[in-house]
């Protein structure tokens, strides 16, 4: 943990996290996170729990899972389905937006 | 602009709304005109609808507009709807609040300038206090005016504490520029955190924090700011602040992981004949050779010129042929000359 400076606090890019790190950052117990890994919602690198490394995007995912569970009263497999459909949906919308802006599909010259 | 929600487990999406609406919440108490909100219309139910219908309508809309389900380009609109739906339900699912709200009468129109009559809630007792299980920080000024002043300090807050514990880590989102992602930098962000004031009102307290943005950070990564999370209890150290990074994209640039895509506008003759051009990129001006017969949409890959890092991303310059205007007589002449002398049918392959 870097020393805390009152004027300019130390800041750093969060490196891949161990299971313990992720528990602490999200304020959660390990069993619950392990369930997310088993469901394929979180995909750490490494084969065993002790060497698991989670990308920091896992923090965002965990927080999404919590909100979806609470607001839509979903169980973990339900959350997994929603997350994958939402990702797919976002990717499609983005793709659509790109195509709509694609010069190959644009009308170039206004009619005189 | 960022906002911190110390209650890290809940209402994270409200955070972003607070960024958008926090100003008006912060200004609560001003005698500013505000707009009437038709909670029945928001939920799409009759004023006479039974409680079960309200619940059903609410659940349906929550599924539809949930910010974690609606990502991508429509996210912001969905989030605003989600917030309205939550606010409407907060009032209508509680028989006491609903009765008080109904008391305002049915003649108000959505968006109409609104001032509550001084004794509008006389005779109503709000047993649950103004704030119930919902987090009201993200609700609008209309809700605030009607219900929020009744908040009582939570029994969990304050009081003597005999123990020490580290502060909670807190989370927020920051939007940085592409230039900051490439070069790093240091910038002040305004943090907004909900706090209880001495009379028990929830207020958004702003404070400024200088954040050092590390070079090479990209969308989806987090920056940890040590010691800037929730305060510790007793002798406990403060928690850390985790900032989720989003790089702002513009029409000409977009980011995918560590790769960056940018428009490369070229003239038709540059596309036809090829050209050596100079292109301003996020990492500085570069010389670039455009091959002959470049078509719109063709991607030129510039290795290692994406977001920097141990494994830097690539920069893709996407060709976009721009047709020069025909305003001048000279330009028109040239186009007419091409029309006469070039044997070119762009529709030759359409068949039919």
Please characterize this protein's 3D structure.
The complex is a heterodimer of chains A (112) and B (352). Chain A has 112 residues and is mostly helical. Chain A has one domain (19-101): Multidrug-efflux Transporter Regulator, Chain: A, Domain 2 (Orthogonal Bundle). Chain A has 4 helices and 1 strand; from the N terminus they run E-H-H-H-H. Chain A has helices spanning 19-26, 30-38, 57-72, 76-101; one strand at 11-13. Chain A is globular. With 352 residues, chain B is of the alpha+beta class. Chain B has 3 domains: 33-150, Orthogonal Bundle (Helix Hairpins); 170-247, Urease metallochaperone UreE, N-terminal domain (HSP40/DNAj peptide-binding domain, Sandwich); 260-341, Sandwich (HSP40/DNAj peptide-binding domain). A 4-stranded mixed sheet of chain B has the order 8-9-13-12. In chain B, strands 3-7-6 form a 3-stranded mixed sheet. In chain B, strands 1-2 form a two-stranded antiparallel ribbon. At the A-B interface, strand 1, helix 1, helix 3 and helix 4 of A face strand 5, strand 6 and strand 7 of B.
Strand and helix order of chain B: HEHHHHEHEHEEEEEEHEEEEH
* Number of extended strands of chain B: 13
Radius of gyration of chain B: 28 Å
Instruction: Write the H/E string of chain A, N to C.
Output: EHHHH
**Helical segment count of chain A:** 4
Helix content of chain A: 40-55%
Counting copies of identical and different chains, the oligomeric state is heterodimer
Give the class of chain B from helix and strand content and strand pairing: alpha+beta
CATH topology of the largest domain in chain B: Helix Hairpins
Separation of the first and last Cα atoms of chain B: 56 Å
């Amino acid at each position: 943990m870097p020393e805390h400076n009152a004027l300019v606090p130390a800041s750093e890019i969060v490196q891949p996290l161990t299971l313990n790190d992720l528990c602490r950052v999200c304020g959660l117990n390990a069993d619950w996170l392990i369930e997310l890994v088993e469901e394929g919602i979180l995909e750490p690198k490494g084969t065993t729990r002790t060497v698991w490394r989670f990308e920091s995007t896992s923090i965002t995912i965990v927080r999404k899972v919590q909100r979806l569970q609470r607001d839509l009263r979903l169980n973990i497999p339900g959350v997994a389905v929603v997350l994958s459909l939402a990702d797919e949906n976002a990717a499609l919308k983005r793709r659509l937006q790109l195509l709509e802006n694609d010069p190959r599909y644009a009308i170039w010259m206004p009619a005189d | 602009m960022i906002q911190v929600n110390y209650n890290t487990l809940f209402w994270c999406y409200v955070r972003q709304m607070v960024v958008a609406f926090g100003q008006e919440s912060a200004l609560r108490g001003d005698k500013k005109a505000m707009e009437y909100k038709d909670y029945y219309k928001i939920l799409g139910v009759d004023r006479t609808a039974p409680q079960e219908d309200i619940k059903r309508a609410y659940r349906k809309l929550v599924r539809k507009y949930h910010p974690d389900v609606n990502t991508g380009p429509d996210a912001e609109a969905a989030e605003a709807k989600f917030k309205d739906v939550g606010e409407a339900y907060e009032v209508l699912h509680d028989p006491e609040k609903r009765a008080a709200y109904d008391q305002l009468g049915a003649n108000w129109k959505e968006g109409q300038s609104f001032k509550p009559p001084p004794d509008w809630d006389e005779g109503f007792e709000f047993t649950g206090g103004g704030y119930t299980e919902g987090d009201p920080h993200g609700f609008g000024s209309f809700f605030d005016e009607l219900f929020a002043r009744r908040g009582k300090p939570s029994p969990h807050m304050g009081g003597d504490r005999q123990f020490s514990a580290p502060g909670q880590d807190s989370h927020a989102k920051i939007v940085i520029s592409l230039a900051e992602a490439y070069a790093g930098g240091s910038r002040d962000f305004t943090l907004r955190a909900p706090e209880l004031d001495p009379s028990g009102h929830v207020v958004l307290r702003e404070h400024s924090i200088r954040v050092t943005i590390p070079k090479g950070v990209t969308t989806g990564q987090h920056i940890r700011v040590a010691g800037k999370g929730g305060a510790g209890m007793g002798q406990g150290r403060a928690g850390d602040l985790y900032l989720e990074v989003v790089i702002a994209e513009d029409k000409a640039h977009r980011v995918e992981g560590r790769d960056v895509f940018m428009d490369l506008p070229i003239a038709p003759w540059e596309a036809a004949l090829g050209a050596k051009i100079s292109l301003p990129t996020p990492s500085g001006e570069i010389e670039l050779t455009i091959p002959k017969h470049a078509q719109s949409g063709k991607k030129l890959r510039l290795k290692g010129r994406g977001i920097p890092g141990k494994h830097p991303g690539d920069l893709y310059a996407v060709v976009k042929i721009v047709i020069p205007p025909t305003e001048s007589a000279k330009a028109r002449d040239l186009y007419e000359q091409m029309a006469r002398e070039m044997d070119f049918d762009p529709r030759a392959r359409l068949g039919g």
